[in-house]
Design a protein that fits this description.
Blueprint (H helix, E strand, L loop, with lengths): L6 E6 L6 E6 L7 E4 L4 E7 L5 E7 L6 E6 L7 E4 L5 E6 L5 E6 L6 E6 L15 E2 L6 E5 L5 E5 L4 E10 L2 E4 L3 E5 L15 E3 L5 E3 L24
Amino acid sequence: WSPDGTRIAFRSAREAAGNIYQMLANGAGSAERLIASDQNMAPTSWSRDGRFLLYMSNDPQTNADLWVVPMVGDRTPSVFLKTPFREAYGAFSPDGRWVAYHSNESGRNEIYVRPFVPPGETGTTAVAGQWQISTAGGVHAVWRPDGKELYYLNPAGEMMAAPIAAVGDALEPGAPVVLFPTHIVGGGSDTQGGWQYDVAPDGRFLINMELDDAAAAPITLIQNWNPEAKK
């Protein structure tokens, strides 16, 4: 979703393996193609000021990389992070200064954060640095709405939280803690089609969960319900 809720960015294979489009959230008009490529791409995060869209591009030579495209003016994509490893599912911090993502550069997926410097801005000095947030594996980072904590899934599918403090141009991540176990689709893996959870502005979690195969999902029907009569 765009920050103002009026547009949706998405991947579609209507013309190629996975180009990126945007369209109005109310369904009016037709989809506008933002990025065309012969690679499989997917949008992952829209900056809160609406100026930039992060996306991941699956390159057979480098596995997966993170790119950014301006959503105003010249929409020329530029590389945010490209290495021989898999960098996936980048997420802008609420203030737009940082990008969280997971990478397998250590041999397993871990959560990292890097500074974000808007491409092409004159007078802006690139800030170097990378901070590892997870300590025992992690995928699919989501920022707390105030930016003071980073959520992610550990390999067991438990929801983790790590405090984040920005000190000047550096980060001081705290020790991650387990919030609660989940039955999230895909568990703690990176193979089930991306994020299977999100965090609302009021801090509540929305999680796509797997049901126990042995249990039937109940459906309750209330007949002749009159809400006015309950007042």
